[in-house]
Amino acid sequence: MNIHLAGLDFTAAMPAPLDPAFCPASLFNRAYRQLVSREGGVPARVGLERGDGSVSIYTTSVLPPHHPRSALSLYYVERIIKFLLWQRGGWKVHFGGPREIGEHIRAAYAKGGARQFDADFMGGVYENPFEVVVTEPDHVPDEKENPVPLGRHLEGCRVGFDLGASDRKASAVINGEAIFSEEVPWDPRHAADPQYHYGGVMDSIRRAAARLPRLDAVGGSAAGVYVNNRARVASLFRGVPKQDFDEKIANMFLRIRDELGVPMEVVNDGEVTALAGSMSIGDNPVLGVAMGSSEAAGYVNSAGNITGWLNELAFAPIDYRPDAPADEWSGDIGCGVQYLSQVGAIRVAAGAGMTFDSTLGLPEKLVCLQEKMRSGDPLADGVYRTLGVYLGYGVAHYADFYDLKHVLILGRVTTGPGGDILIQKAKEVVAREFPELHERMSLQLPDEESRRVGQSIAAASLPAIKGEKQ
Question: What φ, ψ does residue 32 adopt, rounded to 5°?
Fold first, then answer.
């Protein structure tokens, strides 16, 4: 399929069956870089500074300002920086390159600009006013990453929990073996009362802890951004008024820790997804992508450590078409949540003519889709093949920003026979379009070993018990 976007022509060898307008970011960026390579480019260097003083660096090349097609660079760099912010995080962006591009980025993230939501979000996470600095490439700060070990503490009696948009999961774990697990439905995104959230989390912990002879530690994962066990920003708590969030939600897990009187650690659910994959595979690096209520992601580097990055790929763009579906929270278009999640699955199914009871929520609609898949419905089959194309091109895009060796795909969307079709289609895309990546990367669903060392055990392993070797 031939694609023309922003004055650039390229071809998608494997278009999405039920969404042929899908315009993979990976293909646009490859075509742009090929153009720069043919016609000559100038360096561009992006530095993202985070609250702890760490700095991530991304380098590329762009068309020189005098080039007749230099307007392509504005789009290319804007989408790159958007991705980097949600992947790595930062309150200050240093752009070293052509000033025209830098000023375009500065305007986009200014008050009233197209990316004001992102600027406000990042400023809130890192508790600094968001800033874009335009400079020369050699004036961008040096890279300073601070990777840290995460979890892998299995000794003792522990509770692990995971907070999702539709249910709370909790497990009782003794010396690395889950002896009890349960899921409890809830609806946190529409709950304005902080007590609803506190009560729900405590209920799940206590129900699991009741199955243990004692409680030594608690570890948890949840959608959102957490810094030193403090909730910074999270869609789970979007219904809570700001003042109540600041007063009662931000420090909620610290309060729970103190009330329980045991070590407790809470991190982003994507990080625990990657940790679970690393623990089960026994090799690194691992990118974990959970296709659930939203898209969650986490990354463990080649040394087995987490990076301190956000890895909020739900809000990172993978589709560059100008009329791509918009994320309801950030308002931006083409972001992962609309493609690699329950939201994406139901959007594709409904767009292709599949009907659902309007009273059902997304989880129930997903169950209906999966039942149709099991019964051999060709439309459901097309939905999963479409999701597989999204995933294949999406993972190729992720490879521009991560060192990929193992990519583990999890989440409710992958449950049942549709998950196998999704993965197979994604592998076909990577093998055909990106053969070098295909040779060095494993893309897979969890195997039985991965399921044994699951999310709950990985979450429970987060805190170290006093006196335990760190």
Answer: -65, -45
CA nearest 280: which of 182, 442, 152? 152
How many alpha carbons lie under 13 Å from residue 188 in its C-beta half-sphere? 26
Buried b (16+ CB within 10 A) or exposed e, 200-217: bbeebbebbbebbeebbb
Nearest to 442 by CA among 397, 395, 400, 401: 395
Strands lying side by side in the sheet with 406-410: 295-300, 286-291, 406-410, 442-444
Pairing of strands 217-222, 264-268: parallel
Rounded Cα–Cα distance for residues 140 and 327 (Å) = 32
Q: What is the pLDDT of residues 396-444, one digit of tens each?
A: 999 999 999 999 998 889 999 999 999 999 999 999 999 999 999 999 9
Please name the helix (run of DSSP H) or strand (run of DSSP E) that holds residue 356, with its range, or none.
Answer: none
Q: Are 308 and 299 in contact (CB under 8 A)?
A: no
- β-strands 264-268, 286-291 pairing: unpaired
> Rounded to an integer, what distance in angstroms lies between the CA atom of residue 146 and that of residue 301?
12
The fold for domain 147-470 equals Nucleotidyltransferase; domain 5 (3.30.420)
Name 95's Cβ contacts closer than 8 Å, sequence gap at least 6.
Answer: 44, 45, 46, 77, 81, 101, 102, 105, 132, 133, 134, 135, 140
Q: Where are the domains of the chain?
A: 40-139, 147-470
Confidence (pLDDT) at 453: 46
Helix (H) or strand (E) holding 301: none
| E strand or H helix at 312 | none
Strand duo 286-291 + 406-410: pairing:
parallel
* pLDDT score for 34: 97
Reported as a single tens digit per residue, the pLDDT across 88-109 is 999 999 999 999 999 999 999 9
Query: Taking a C-beta distance cutoff of 8 angstroms, is the pair 282, 383 a contact?
Result: no
User: From the CB of residue 459, how many other CB atoms can be counted at a distance below 10 Å?
Assistant: 33
Q: Can you tell me the mean pLDDT for 43-59? A: 96
Contact 421, 387 (CB under 8 A): no
AA identity, residue 371: E
Q: Give the model confidence (pLDDT) of 203-222 as tens digits.
A: 999 999 999 999 999 999 98
Best CA proximity match to 314, nearest among 238, 445, 382, 224: 224
